[in-house]
Records
---
Amino acid sequence: MADFTGRILPLLWRRSIPARKAAGRPPRLSVDLVVATAIRLADASGLDAASMAGIAAELSVATMTLYTYVPSRDDLVDLMVDEVFGDRGLAGAAPVEFRERVRFYADRTFAMYRAHPWLARVSPVRPPIGPGMLAEREYMLATVAALGLPIGRLDAAALTLAGHITAAARLEAENTLISRATGLTTATWWQQRGELWETWFDAAAHPTMTTVWNGGGFEAQEQDPYEYGLCLLLDGIETEAGHAVSRDSWPRTAGDA
Amino acid sequence: MADFTGRILPLLWRRSIPARKAAGRPPRLSVDLVVATAIRLADASGLDAASMAGIAAELSVATMTLYTYVPSRDDLVDLMVDEVFGDRGLAGAAPVEFRERVRFYADRTFAMYRAHPWLARVSPVRPPIGPGMLAEREYMLATVAALGLPIGRLDAAALTLAGHITAAARLEAENTLISRATGLTTATWWQQRGELWETWFDAAAHPTMTTVWNGGGFEAQEQDPYEYGLCLLLDGIETEAGHAVSRDSWPRTAGDA
DNA sequence: TTCATTCTCGTACCCCCTACGGTAATGGTT
DNA sequence: AACCATTACCGTAGGGGGTACGAGAATGAA
């Protein structure tokens, strides 16, 4: 299993490799088992809990044993990410109509980030180029391609939509992570900073905030920024594609992002 | 200077505290000096380089000395963040017209993330409630308030715009960080994964990607998702406010996000 | 039986944050 | 001048982390 010299691709695509020759001492674990265990630990106790030592202990194995299956912790995280990306299930049965496909994507994505909030702690750039990540790209490209957009705009449109949805899901997940780590709800956290307004806040320097505050503008939020923004983006892309547009209401998907 | 029991607020607002009584041994450093040094290290070598040991060494002081000025590393990062937030200069002279104000905000924000890319590694939720962060909120609220939006929608509109711009700036900064850390450009990184297409990619499972690829859709990007999305959001918000809208082109601000 | 092959993992090194408690330096008071 | 409350300084130690190295154990094949 060893002898990976900075080569993560064969690990990401390991399920496409057909056979396996038996030679030498048989392994006690498998890449899949290590990755699954890491995901389970991260889901339960955060990405930090999925340390090499933690995973090894969970598997009743010495820490260094894991390096037989995985080149490094960073690569393991890549494997974890592509695994949950694939589990989102965008490759199977899916809606056909444009908005339904987008909604399906959003629902699955929010569900993924809720089940695996540690994803919000993994860098969104240069993601693992594995089957899970490619399935996502294929799905979103197919979604906007069905609208009849010119080929030069497909990628931008797909990235815009996926980016907006993902950003909202990540924000919600990050919120969950911090609430868990601190044991404080956002409301409690604000209460702890209550003295801000009495002691430190300078109303004269923040006239608009003061006005909004006094008018109750911070409490009665009429719109969710995520839904509002998504609506605008969908309308714009459909218009771009020359379809008739009706700005119907977008069903709720996000919790409190 | 000691005796902060989880009280970060007085540190964030330390410049609002007028006098300082002299008693006991005089300090060699100051909070401002510690924060400035940490920012300098993080700018030059990443957030990890701004470790307590690293900062102390830079100041020719023992590591534990820093804890006289700052309760913990996390609080120090909060201080760093609010410092650069304030340095953005949104509190001073600024444009008056709506779109110019938004552009001003975007320019300053991208400049901030380019000067301090480590910001992208700091959680965007529950930010430090200091003068720098409040100045930003005041600026964006004043910007959308001038449009005449109802008070219940001001916060959502401000958050939508700020969120879109910030997300793009963070993505660009994260890109910079990874390029620095790995010493690889994104192009080189893709080259390393060139074998993906020959060895692992299954064209039959990704028909749309294959079509777009063969049509050159991944190379000739006609639009920047950031600019495109921002345009749509601005149009929508202005429409909401009942203004006349002309979808004029939004000047380039982002680099390659 | 021997051997190449492969997996297992103890040790060691370097990095991080920070609790604790002792020590040094000051201004004010006696 | 001596003393003291106050504040700053920091050495030590303990608990995390990732992983390079190399010796030992288990297997199938020759």
---
Amino acid sequence: MKTIALPNQTAYAYIQHSRYFQGLPEAALHAVAHAARWCTISSEQYLFHQGDPAQHFYLLCEGQLRLIQITPEGKQIILGLLSPIREVGIVAAIPNAEYPLTMQCLNPTGTLLAWDSASLTALIEQYPVLAVRAMRMVTGRFVQLQTLYRELATLRVEQRIARALVRLTRQAGVPDHVGGTLIGIPLSRQHLADMTGTTLYTVSRTLSAWEQQGIVTSGRERVIVRDRERLIAIADDVPSSPLQIEPPPC
Amino acid sequence: MKTIALPNQTAYAYIQHSRYFQGLPEAALHAVAHAARWCTISSEQYLFHQGDPAQHFYLLCEGQLRLIQITPEGKQIILGLLSPIREVGIVAAIPNAEYPLTMQCLNPTGTLLAWDSASLTALIEQYPVLAVRAMRMVTGRFVQLQTLYRELATLRVEQRIARALVRLTRQAGVPDHVGGTLIGIPLSRQHLADMTGTTLYTVSRTLSAWEQQGIVTSGRERVIVRDRERLIAIADDVPSSPLQIEPPPC
DNA sequence: GGCTGTCGTTGCGCTAGCGCAAACAGGGCT
DNA sequence: AGCCCTGTTTGCGCTAGCGCAACGACAGCC
């Protein structure tokens, strides 16, 4: 990661369109832009690791990030994906906080605006609405994580994979010349397994089965969703009880 | 849930000892106590449901609460337990927010202090450190939930149950006259299953096995941990690979 | 073109955990 | 005491998903 020079005007535009700074008075936006600096990050690089002291707040302007968690044994769990324009590391608003998870760049290059936590704190003090928005962001992530937890606890693997794919089409979907949706990020079987709490074998088998049914097309680190409706049906399918017996006629 | 009259002096004492209000100037504490009202809740009653508009912030003074999440199909998932003195519903600091989960009382009676969100907002505005602490609380819960998620994704059922029991001894452990630790809340097999993402059958079988090994003693809605060390060993056990072959001598 | 390394597929065997059903246990109530 | 209700245990059968191993496919590189 390194700092680069970019026109301040560009920064202003991104800031203006971010949900976090949106609607602030013009003077405030200029102050925000003035306190920011640009930085870039390249493929597979880490923006920060979970446990690092949260010294910077970022605005992701170009590229995408993976939210990952590393287990004590070194296994990685993917909690999600961030696409521009998104705020990253709001936890830097808290003095002496640590980042709760690891951020990894998955595009050849990502571009971010960065504020050190002192600047962020100063901005929040000056514009208290930023404090409320920070809270809202954190609780939003909490609710999202809760949903993931619930799915992991109650759904079968096939449904979890289906949901992951549906989410990915929303977050990184690129329309396809024949009506499908390409998931526009490098996405290996192992990645999908890490997102759904399963193994790469099961993901592979599931995708193979879906490919035969024309639901998806997949290749090396690449998935194209052909029949989104059917995928959603699988995701929402409530499994019939194991021994479904035909009710006897009266 | 109803409002009751209790001496304000008592409220002051609880507030003073809460992590959230701790260390505020005396005048502030008095203001906080003045804005509060008492309420009680009884066994199995809900303090609020997930999705309800977050209109109150609480301080749990007596009794315990279950944090639960209800799935669309009506299945319940238990995310944890709160014991006094704990803050509840900090999300009320955000205008127009909703509670992200459901709180249920599990003691015959629980006692709480309540502030409506307007009072809370006013207090936060007056003492900005409360905003920082609110953020810290929410991120703390986030990290906890993340840990649960990781465990659910990577650990086997037996380990998850062991961890749940270890946590419960910390949160509701009552020392026993013969060196064990009684978990001092009503805790059925189903509850344990809802906490660990498994079924009551598996919990029952696991506890039975542990009982034979002298690790726990259990009865109707009651578990006593006899050998905490062994439980921790199970919780941390890294399973040997399925086909562990003795390496051949050179 | 050929090599290499990474990623994907799939057959096979296995087991952890599920879920029913039926029996059992104990507390509270009349 | 006897009954009922709720919670617990456990035998049984089953299957979803795991994990190895071996092979295949494709991309990038020299």
---
Amino acid sequence: MSNLLERLRGRGWRMTAQRRVVAEVLDGEHIHLTADEVLARASARLPEISRATVYNTLGELVSLGEVMELPGDGRAKRYDPNAHRPHHHLVCSGCGAIRDVHPDGDPLAALPAAERFGFSVSAAEVTYRGLCPVCAAP
Amino acid sequence: MSNLLERLRGRGWRMTAQRRVVAEVLDGEHIHLTADEVLARASARLPEISRATVYNTLGELVSLGEVMELPGDGRAKRYDPNAHRPHHHLVCSGCGAIRDVHPDGDPLAALPAAERFGFSVSAAEVTYRGLCPVCAAP
DNA sequence: GTATTGACTTGGAATCTGTCCATCGTAGGA
DNA sequence: TCCTACGATGGACAGATTCCAAGTCAATAC
């Protein structure tokens, strides 16, 4: 992600302090923050950043393909910066922790033509559910 | 689903007109209604039913494992009554139409132990995305 | 059949997410 | 350095869901 800012600048993105901070907050592995969490972390570095700007910037990063939007299991969507490397997600039913995972094979291949209802199917997202070591312990 | 009411009664569910109507509304194949749509259809049969009751009843059906909750691609969650028969979903990126599908094999098997991070993984949900025949036609 | 009681329902307020908009500020080119 | 178009701001707004206090009723016991 360190070169994300370079890439964005190369695409004609106007660089501002706010956008830089949002991009920095999303840097790392197994990061799956809600917009509100992004706002909280960004505010710690740039207190005057506004909620609208966080939403705008996240929306732009998503449509640029740099960030993946995950349908929230609870209410809020989560934002995953590893959009350039295809992966799926493993979610703890107890505490909600999320890990990026890489299953074998292509899940798309498992859907027979007879089950496609004439759709042109282009992608498959897999969500695995279970209990993390901590929540499974009691 | 016709025996859903029997099963619920057997589990000690207190049967009320409201709960019966909500359960009836969810009867069928390829049913994926939002809470608001459930309310609208339930109101047609029982005009005085309240929104809160619909949410309460849907929440109970979900925690009883009778109904599956689908994270809404747009805003509102959708409720799928076929929870007793495992299946996955095919969603049209154009119009949002949803079909129940049954891929070959068990997607759980595709996740190697090394990718499970110590979780006890118990389920996998697959969402296929593509364009339905109507939306694919230019 | 009637009384009883605790679970269920109600409707409106509150909350949580996310979007919109008019105005102000500023990055980056001239 | 100056301009200007694009970005940021914050407050209003909207949609979805949850909360709550008060009223209602299904199921059980008598």
